[in-house]
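Folding Problem: From Residues to Backbone Shape
Fields: amino acid sequence; protein backbone structure tokens
RECORD BEGINS BELOW THIS LINE
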Amino acid sequence: MDLIQLIVLLIVIGVLLWLVNTQLGQFIDAKLLKIINVVVVVAVVLWLLTLFGLLPGRTIHVGSG
């Protein structure tokens, strides 16, 4: 993955999280919003660690052998 693509993807994730917090914050309980924020941040951090090779990731091998 190219660095520009990574930055754009992180910006998109941030904007989506901001939209959830601002637009749905009126309708969802504050505790649930906090849980959503924590889950998204932890998932992104784990994904980035796996992407940069700092955390072993799962690989799926397709084919015979």
Remarks:
- The radius of gyration is 16 Å.
